[in-house]
Design goal:
Blueprint lengths: L1 H20 L12 H6 L10 H4 L17 H14 L6 H33 L2 H6 L29 H16 L4 H4 L5 H19 L1 H5 L4 H10 L6 H12 L19 H34 L11 H20 L19 H21 L5 H19 L14 H23 L3 H29 L3 H11 L4 H13 L3 H14 L4 H13 L3 H14 L5 H12 L3 H14 L4 H13 L3 H14 L4 H12 L12 H13 L3 H14 L4 H13 L3 H14 L4 H21 L3
Helix pairs in contact: 1-7, 1-18, 4-5, 4-11, 5-7, 5-9, 7-17, 9-11, 11-13, 12-13, 12-16, 14-15, 14-16, 15-16, 16-17, 17-18, 19-20, 20-21, 21-22, 22-23, 22-24, 23-24, 24-25, 25-26, 26-27, 26-28, 27-28, 29-30, 29-31, 30-31, 31-32, 31-33, 32-33
Length: 733
């Protein structure tokens, strides 16, 4: 009873520590792939689209090249969008991920405990196992030791109270590790955490429930995990290794009367039964995984691409990457959201040699530890680490190395390393003259390590707070990453630091001269600083370097629309929609342009087509009403929603009627006082009217309501700079 109280106290302490470590992450911003999968993905905006997610993979992303079949993941995002009433509040997105993370911790405890207990049984001599009174649990076959009636074989579990504490500490080590923050903070990588959760759930069902094993119910979580991310398919080889290590030596069932008179020797009988036991239990998982993977592949749109280039260059880089991952497990001090490691070009690279040597030594360690029965968790942990890294090591992806890929592999590494450390500590304490002092010292050191990990996680969350903080960190830790430099420059440009943005863009251009998105951002910078000729050159080079992507055409069209080059703008907007039919921003800009030109026929067509894709889109409904009336309607504010009033404000703004734009935005605020987008429109309109004080006031309110709104920050920064310049001119400076 006393030990149970200590166990519960330790469990509660770990839970509080994990919550405290992640307490500052619940309002962190969207980043990187979050934008094309969540923020700009029109399908997650309506919870009624959930059936569409299971139809094919085209609803996963607004970018065709990134569309893959992950319907369960998209479903959870749509629910979060519904609960949070949009993307302005990221709390529900982070809360959902964190809840699954906590549940995963509980399942990991059950997984680790079962493996540790099985190891204790395996490590005992056969005679001791046969007579051990604590061995009480059957698993699978009713396998009895020959000559020992009523006794169970190693598929049973010996209860060891120490193992419960080791399992809890191992869970704490994993959950507080700063590398986990890379996945928990990166919202779209919930697919990684969901697949990990369901893999562990499948293991727990397989280990603890004879009913689930008999009827293959443990495969159901595996299907759910694969629908979140295909990575869940690694369960099959993991299960094979588990069976090989912990269940292969099970003894055969008692032969029935009438069997062959010539009996096989017991040792050979046990050996054959052991292999049959492994194959019998592992084969259904392999068949199921193969079927699920083929189904998912058939549902992926043909536009999906993994993003990598040379298979050879990518693969020869992976041994070094695995070495870096292993080092990160012990020293998570140089985490980067986007590393600058590039694929190796030759096997003569010293890093390839170092990585390959390490990988050989790692496998050798697993094989050597296999000879020692009490080190089988280490063997299993190493093979878990290698197997779960295999898919991202053999399929060329856009990045050769990424922090969120550690989420699943570190489960196995935590298992193996922590068990080995515990054995070493217990062995040293047993041989010591002061065993109590040794154990207390070890406990103190473990506590210090866990507190350090928790602090590191808390600090890592701060880096993920905003785009500017994240990409600044990337530029410092990965200074040769052109994309990282560009994104930090983009963050600076969003607050009107055009000089700083230009510096980072130029550095990025040296490293990534053909990066289409970089050319887009340079073009926007040139346009914002009054260089439309240079801007157009960069827009054209963006299209030349990214003809298969929709964004170069869209941003060039926006530039053309601003300069009233409607024919060219229309052509580029149509090209955008041709590449990405669900590109809502392109559709809305096309509607704005048709309204501006009073082309009501085309306006009705694009509005109706948009409503077919997004039935509740306020923008399309508003313009369809205008198009079908065939005239300029007299707008009645009383009958309009805040969203339609904001659309009207934007229409007036683009028509140059800034007073009317402000009037419509204020009407929207009457209906929704905390509408940050309305304050942003007011700020932008006052900027055009050169009424800087009023612009600053509205802009400050917009940023106060939504600190992550880049448009509001940009308009406010511009208003403040002009306000300061005006004040200086007024004093004669």
């Amino acid at each position: 009873m006393k030990e149970n109280k200590k166990l519960y106290l330790l469990a509660m302490t770990i839970f509080v520590a994990v919550v405290a470590a992640y307490s500052n992450h619940f309002h962190n911003a969207f980043h990187f792939d979050d934008f094309h999968t969540i923020v700009n993905n029109i399908y997650v905006r309506d919870i009624g689209n959930i059936p569409l997610f299971f139809k094919d993979g085209s609803t996963f992303s607004s970018l065709p090249s990134n569309q893959s079949y992950r319907p369960l993941l998209t479903t959870t995002l749509a629910i979060d969008y519904y609960l949070g009433k949009g993307v302005a509040n990221t709390f529900y997105f982070h809360l959902s991920t964190f809840i699954f993370f906590i549940l995963q911790g509980f399942l990991m405890y059950l997984l680790f405990l079962k493996i540790f207990d099985n190891t204790e049984v395996i490590a005992k001599p056969l005679e001791a196992r046969a007579s051990c009174p604590q061995v009480i649990e059957k698993c699978g076959q009713d396998a009895r030791v020959p000559g020992k009636a009523g006794s169970f074989a190693i598929t049973s579990t010996e209860k060891n109270s120490t193992n419960r504490f080791i399992a809890l500490i191992t869970v704490a080590w994993y959950m507080l590790h700063p590398a986990g923050a890379e996945t928990i903070n990166y919202i779209i990588q919930r697919g990684e955490s969901l697949s990990t959760f369901f893999i562990i759930l499948a293991f727990v069902l397989f280990m603890y429930s004879p009913f689930a094993r008999k009827w293959y119910l443990y495969l159901l979580p595996l299907a759910a995990g694969a629908l979140a991310k295909p990575m869940a398919g690694v369960f099959a080889p993991l299960l094979f290794v588990y069976l090989l290590l912990f269940e292969k030596t099970s003894t055969p069932p008692k032969k029935k009367r009438g069997d062959m008179k010539k009996k096989m020797p017991v040792a050979e009988d046990v050996k054959i039964f052991g292999w049959w036991h492994v194959l019998k239990n592992a084969l259904p998982a392999f068949i199921f995984v193969l079927a699920v993977m083929l189904f998912i592949q058939s549902m992926d749109p043909p536009t999906w691409t993994p993003g990598g280039a040379s298979f050879f260059n990518y693969v020869i880089t992976q041994p070094y990457v695995i070495l870096q991952y292993f080092i990160t497990f012990f020293l998570p001090i140089n985490l980067s959201a986007d590393t600058d490691l590039q694929p190796f070009t030759t096997m003569a690279d010293i890093r390839f040699i170092a990585g390959t040597t390490f990988l050989i030594l790692l496998v050798a360690t697993a094989v050597i530890s296999l000879r020692h029965k009490n080190l089988r968790p280490l063997t299993f942990g190493i093979f878990w680490f290698i197997i779960t890294l295999a898919p991202t090591s053999l399929i060329p992806l856009a990045e050769v190395m990424n922090g969120h890929r550690l989420f699943l592999p570190f489960v196995g590494l935590s298992l193996g390393i922590r068990w080995s450390l515990s054995l070493g500590i217990r062995k040293f304490a047993k041989s010591s003259k002061l065993p109590v002092r040794v154990m207390r010292t070890a406990a103190a050191l473990i506590a210090i390590a866990l507190i350090s990990y928790a602090y590191g996680t808390h600090e890592r969350n701060k880096v993920w707070k905003t785009d500017e903080a994240l990409w600044k960190d990337v530029t410092e830790k990965s200074p040769k990453n052109g994309r990282g430099l560009m994104n930090y420059g983009l963050a600076l440009m969003s607050r009107a630091d055009y000089e700083g943005a230009g510096q980072y863009f130029r550095r990025a251009l040296e490293l990534s001269p053909n990066y289409s998105y970089l050319h887009i951002n340079i073009a926007i910078l040139e346009d914002n600083t009054g260089n439309p000729v240079e801007a157009e050159k960069y827009f054209m080079s963006a299209i030349a370097n990214g003809r298969e992507y929709p964004e170069p055409y869209f941003y060039y069209a926006r530039f053309l629309f601003k300069n009233q080059r409607y024919g060219e703008a229309e052509e580029n907007l149509k090209r955008t929609i041709q590449i990405a039919s669900a590109h809502l921003n392109a559709r809305r800009l096309l509607m704005d342009m048709y309204y501006e030109r009073r082309d009501y026929g085309k306006l009705a067509d694009i509005a109706e087509d948009t409503l077919r894709i997004v039935p509740n889109d306020e923008h399309a409904s508003f313009f369809l009403a205008i198009a079908t009336s065939g005239e300029h309607p007299l707008f009645e504010y009383e009958s309009m929603t805040p969203e339609r009033l904001l659309d009207l404000s934007l229409i007036h703004y683009r028509s140059g009627n800034y007073e009317k734009s402000i009037e419509a935005a204020r009407e929207a605020l009457n209906l929704r006082p905390d509408y940050d987008l309305a304050y942003n429109n007011i700020c932008a309109a006052y900027n055009e009217l050169e009424e800087w004080d009023k612009a600053v006031e509205a802009g400050e309110r917009a940023v106060e309501l939504n600190p992550d709104n880049p448009l509001a920050k940009n308009n406010l920064a511009f208003a403040r700079s002009r306000q300061a310049a005006s004040a200086n001119n007024g004093t004669g400076d």
